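Researcher: Structure prediction, please.
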Amino acid sequence: MSSLAVAPAHKKRSTYTWLFYLLPSIAIMLVFFIYPILLTFFYSFTNLALTGEAAKALKFIGIDNYVRMFQDPTVRISIWNTLVFLIGSAVIGQQVLGFLIALLMKHKNKMFRRVVGTIVLAGWVTPEIVCALCLYSFFGDEGTLNAIISFFGIPEVTWLFTVPMLTVIIANIWHGTAFSMLVFQAALDDVPTEIEEAAVVDGASKWQILFRITIPYIRETITTNMMLVTLQTLGVFGLIYAMTGGGPGTSTTTMPIFMYNQAFVNYQLGYGTAISLLLLLIGIVLSLFYIRSMKE
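Model: Predicted structure follows.
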C-alpha cells in the first residue's frame, strides 16, 4: 500500500526534474526565437522607419503594410525569382547533383572518395562572401569563363547581365552541393548490399536497382534533405547581393534581397518586417508539405 502511495509522488518529482533540465533550452528558444518572431509580427503592423517622421513616432497602421505588399509588383517579381532560384539551385541543383556524386562514389576505394569529397567540400567550407567573389571573378566580363571561350574563338558574353539568375544558381549549387552529397553518401552506405546482390541475381539492371530499391529505401532521407536545403536556400542573401546586388534591375531580386532593400536601403522597417513574415510563411508551408510527404 505504501509503495502505491509513493509511486505517484516519485513520478511527479521525475516530471519536475525533466522540466528543470529543459528550462535552459526553453529560455533560449523564448528569447532568441519566439520573442523576435512576436516582435517582428508587431512591427509589421506599424510604420517603423529609420528616418523621417515615422522614426520619431511609432504608430499602429493596421494591415497597411500588407495591402501595400500585395499591391507592389516588385513583390510578385521577388516571389517568382525566389521560386526560380529555389527550384534551380536547391531542388534540381544541390539535390540531384549531390545524389549523383554520392552514387558515383559508392563502392569506390577510400582514396577516390577522399579526393572527390575534398574537391566538393571546398565549395561548402568556403564562406559565402568568398564564394560569391570567386564566382563573380569567374563570370565577370574579364573573368575566367570569358578567357576560356575567347581562347576557342567564341565571342565573350556578359554573363552577369545576360543570364544573371543562372550565374547565382550555379554559384549556390557549387556552394551547397557538398551538404547533400554527405547526407546521401551516409544514406547510400546504409542500403543493404544483400538486397542489391539478390536483385542482380534475379536479373535486375542497374537502373531497376536504382529506381526500385535504392531510391525507395532512402526516400525519407531524400525528403529530409530536400526540406533542409529548401529552408537554407530561402534565406540566401549574401551570395546574390555580392554577385548582382539583385540586378540588373530586379532580375535576381529574391525576397531576402527585396526585404533588405526596403528595410535598410529605403529605411522602411515596418514594411520590411511584413515582407519577412511572408518569407517565413512560405518556409512554414514548404516545411509542412515535406513533413506530410515523409508521413505518407
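Model: The chain has one domain: 72-295.
Researcher: Thanks, that helps.
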